[in-house]
Design brief:
By secondary structure, this protein is α/β, with parallel strands linked by helices. The chain contains 15 helices and twelve strands. GO terms for molecular function: glycosyltransferase activity.
């Protein structure tokens, strides 16, 4: 059977949230018969610069959270920083266009900086196929918005400040369908698999693939409520070693998060990103505690206002909030997404209706292009809107 075409999905390995959404979308599109190319935007940079960008962003979250929060707020208030970011990334447009195969029929992004490259290419006529964005956060930061992007896919309750010419479609979260509520037998098997106690209240403490935030304090304060924390440290080996010294249930990177969520009674998180969406899809109550600055606090506020999660604002509030959500867990349904579009279906329809991208238009190499990589490092230090989970 002839395949319906090729789709390119552009993400970035800044945390894991952008990549996990891209992976889920790619899997759904392949199931519909499409060829799918996955591209890491940061691969436009030489290896050392790629690593420097990731280290700078991670260091900002770890060591200067107040500075990160300030950047987030400043870049939300004025369009000038986003225009500056777009200009700084301009030298990388040609390299981005060369990475798009001629038979591509749509490009999808799950990382905001990609929009600042692909949107102008689309608007300027150098990219003929639709550019569609799946926004990984509930707060649609201005760095997601770029002229030329055809459609922005956001989940229910996402907040976008009014902006002319922005086409927004509500979609179901790009969460694996392996997440789902299960019966008590499933919970017992999951606890046994991960070596967890068969009885008692277990609170899954998550802090993204980098293990950022006030994780140690959160774990201690969850313990003080009487719940037993199960900590996922992602790829932060130092954090895992430090927390394991007290004999707690501490895990590193977990490949089967659906099974782990079946084992616990509540999820305690600090970013409101993809892990939070996964927990809600699994029907597990979610408490936001000590949220990350910037996108973490913004997401937490939206989630709390919508009633999807509870936000415990202090150690004194944590115990009562945990008790309330755990007590209500059996009657807490997963959010109903049946009325929302599947992002893969939206992308598939756009791709089927589009002509192939064709080859890049030949032209003179910009004199600025050799310095584009270095400029992009500076740009990457600007706030991109999170997506760590």
């Amino acid at each position: 059977m002839e395949r319906p075409g090729r789709i390119m999905v552009v993400s970035a390995d800044i945390g894991a949230g952008h990549d996990r959404a891209a992976d889920e979308l790619a899997e759904r599109l392949r199931a519909r018969g499409f060829e799918v190319d996955r591209f890491n935007l940061l691969h436009l940079l030489p290896g050392p610069l790629h690593r420097a960008v990731r280290a700078a962003y991670r260091g900002l979250l770890h060591r200067l959270p107040g500075g990160y929060h300030l950047l987030f707020r400043l870049t939300r208030r004025s369009p000038a920083p986003v225009r500056a970011l777009r200009a700084l990334l301009r030298p990388l447009r040609r390299a981005m266009r060369r990475r798009i195969p001629p038979d591509t029929r749509a490009v999808v992004t799950t990382y905001p900086f990609a929009n600042q490259l692909l949107g102008p290419l689309r608007r300027g006529g150098r990219l003929r196929v639709p550019v569609i964005t799946y926004v990984t956060d509930l707060v649609v930061h201005p760095t997601w918005l770029a002229p030329g992007v055809d459609v922005y896919c956001t989940v229910r309750h996402a907040e976008l400040r009014p902006s002319a010419g922005v086409d927004v479609t509500l979609v179901e979260p790009l969460v694996s369908r392996a997440f789902g509520a299960c019966d008590g037998g499933g919970r017992r098997r999951a606890r046994h698999r991960f070596g967890l106690p068969a009885e008692g209240v277990l609170a899954l403490v998550v802090a993204g693939s980098w293990g950022v935030g006030q994780v140690a304090a959160t774990v201690a304060e969850v313990e003080a409520t009487g719940a037993r924390p199960v900590v996922v440290c992602g790829r932060n080996r130092a954090l895992r070693r430090r927390l394991s010294e007290a004999g707690r249930h501490v895990l590193g990177w977990v490949d089967d998060m659906p099974a782990l969520m079946r084992a616990v009674d509540v999820v305690v998180e600090n970013a409101g990103g993809l892990t939070c969406q996964e927990a809600l899809a699994a029907g597990v109550p979610v408490v936001t505690y000590r949220p990350l600055p910037g996108h973490g606090r913004a997401n937490a506020a939206i989630l709390a206002r919508s009633g999807l999660t509870r936000w415990a604002g202090s150690p004194d509030q944590l115990g009562p909030v945990l008790a309330a959500v755990v007590g209500a867990a059996p009657s807490t349904p997963a959010p109903d997404t049946r009325s929302l579009a599947d992002p893969a279906g939206l992308v598939a329809d756009a791709a089927r209706a589009a002509e192939p991208a064709g080859p890049d238009t030949p032209g003179r190499r910009s004199l600025l292009e050799p310095v584009g990589d270095a400029v992009a490092v500076v740009a990457a230090l600007l706030q991109a809107g999170g997506g760590l989970r």
